[in-house]
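RECORD TYPE: inverse folding
INPUT: structure tokens
STRUCTURE:
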């Protein structure tokens, strides 16, 4: 697998993977309408350094997941804090989320961010568990703010300080991932 900066030609795969997260009961994104490849191209063009989007390819040309770092929406002026998002294609869920998260956190550190925030549905147990395992801590719950499947759901804000090292159990896994998927920094920094 290869982790690299997303390019405009990845917009179709990014849109497809994002749209896979919308069906009722998935609890990944509160979007009401599917996104298009064109809307993803516009979104990618608007994201400026040090923020951005990256993809994880199983083989060249086969995008199986993507992640992004965006300005923290609540206070875009908060220095060096980013909102992190990760999405994995249905066929690979449960298999590569940790890899994608490790690479995204690595990029955030290398780009000088102090902290990252993941905003997830409190019913999205896989994402919550993965983030907590990797050292994210619950920071806030916003009750009944996101509409998922016709119901108002809670949004859990998970925060990770990048000023301290990752939890000991995760370091060995992280280092292994970074030696393989994130070996060539020229492809993503």
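DESIGNED SEQUENCE:
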């Amino acid at each position: 697998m290869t982790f690299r900066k997303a390019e405009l030609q990845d917009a179709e795969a990014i849109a497809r993977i994002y749209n896979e997260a919308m069906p009722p009961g998935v609890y990944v994104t509160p979007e009401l309408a599917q996104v298009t490849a064109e809307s993803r191209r516009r979104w990618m063009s608007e994201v400026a350094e040090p923020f951005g989007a990256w993809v994880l390819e199983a083989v060249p040309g086969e995008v199986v997941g993507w992640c992004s770092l965006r300005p923290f929406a609540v206070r875009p002026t908060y220095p060096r804090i980013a909102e992190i998002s990760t999405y994995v294609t249905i066929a690979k869920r449960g298999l590569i989320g940790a890899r994608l998260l490790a690479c995204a956190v690595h990029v955030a550190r290398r780009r000088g961010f102090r902290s990252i925030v993941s905003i997830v549905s409190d019913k999205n147990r896989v994402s919550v568990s993965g983030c907590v395992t990797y050292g994210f801590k619950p920071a806030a719950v916003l009750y009944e703010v996101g509409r998922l499947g016709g119901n108002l759901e809670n949004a859990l804000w998970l925060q990770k300080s990048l000023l301290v090292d990752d939890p000991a159990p995760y370091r060995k896994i992280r280092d292994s991932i970074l030696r393989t998927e994130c070996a060539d920094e020229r492809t993503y920094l």
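NOTES: Helices lie at 11-20, 37-46, 97-110, 125-133, 168-180.
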